[in-house]
Design brief:
CATH architecture: Alpha-Beta Barrel
Number of strands: 12
Strand content: 25-35%
Distance between the termini: 18 Å
Strand order of the largest sheet: 1-4-5-6-7-10-11-12
Order of helices and strands: EEEHEHHEHEHHEEEHEHEHEHH
Oligomer: single chain
CATH class: Alpha Beta
Helix content: 25-40%
Radius of gyration: 16 Å
Length: 253
């Protein structure tokens, strides 16, 4: 059984790390590189950088931040936001990223998933999904950092994405993001049971038990965290220890 991965998520606007609630109401936290280095030293398994305004401006602005980060951080780095083409993906990967996460451009042109996975490998192609609950057992995929409805059913969309070559799903609950009320376990479990690739649960982490629940009840393969780490409500080691105490397969430091 593969280890459950603990992944700090860093949402970036311009040069700054930011954090909001329901993907809105952003507060500037500081230099993302400083946070990334700290989380690496604290034992993170991977990192996620997400340019949250890139789709609005039609470009990803994280190249310089990525280059500076990988000088001191030696764990897998996923970068998303504003990646619209194979060339965009190539540019980010050459800057030092290990994977690209694509949402808006994949919704607009699903063939992009196939193109990126064919050239760089499915392990590099992460389908980023922003999901909002629309009723019992039903979620709609959104784009542009939770601002734009797509009309796409989340479960149908993730299955299509994996068929096209996505090697992993980054699943963000818009309803829970930034609330510290726990993950949407029903959503995570439904997606995890719909696809044969790893699912990263994002949105809602408030206490260590939330990580335990989303792994044991939601069947997630990895957990993305932001608020609880950025505001120092807990450490990666606290979360890792909770996993070990609950017999979850996390990497031992």
């Amino acid at each position: 059984m593969s280890n459950v991965r603990l992944i700090p998520r860093l949402d970036i606007k311009g040069p700054n790390l930011v954090k909001g609630i329901h993907l809105e109401g952003l507060r500037v936290m500081g230099d993302p590189k400083d946070f990334a280095v700290k989380y690496y030293k604290d034992g993170a398994d991977e990192l996620i950088y997400m340019d949250i305004v890139a789709s609005l401006y039609g470009r990803n602005n994280l190249t310089d931040i990525v280059k500076r980060t990988v000088e001191n951080v030696f764990i897998p780095l996923t970068v998303g936001g504003g990646i619209r083409s194979v060339e965009d993906a190539k540019h980010i990967l050459r800057s030092g990223a290990d994977k690209v996460a694509i949402n808006t451009a994949a919704i607009k042109r699903p063939e992009l998933i196939q193109e990126v996975s064919k050239i760089f490998g499915s392990q590099c192609m992460i389908l980023s999904v922003e999901a909002q609950n629309m009723g019992p057992g039903k979620w709609e995929a959104f784009t542009d950092n939770g601002r734009e409805k797509t009309g796409k059913d989340v479960l149908e969309w993730v299955r299509q994405g994996v068929e096209l070559g996505a090697g992993e799903i980054l699943l963000t609950s818009i309803d829970r993001e930034g609330t510290r009320q726990g993950f949407d376990l029903e959503l995570v479990r439904a997606v995890s049971e719909s696809v044969p690739v790893p699912v990263i649960a994002s949105g809602g982490m408030g206490q260590t038990q939330d990580m335990v629940d989303v792994i044991q009840k939601g069947k997630a393969d990895a957990v993305a965290m932001a608020d609880v780490l950025h505001y120092r409500r807990m450490t990666i080691q606290d979360i890792r220890q909770a996993g070990l105490d609950s017999n979850i397969h996390v990497r031992k430091l």
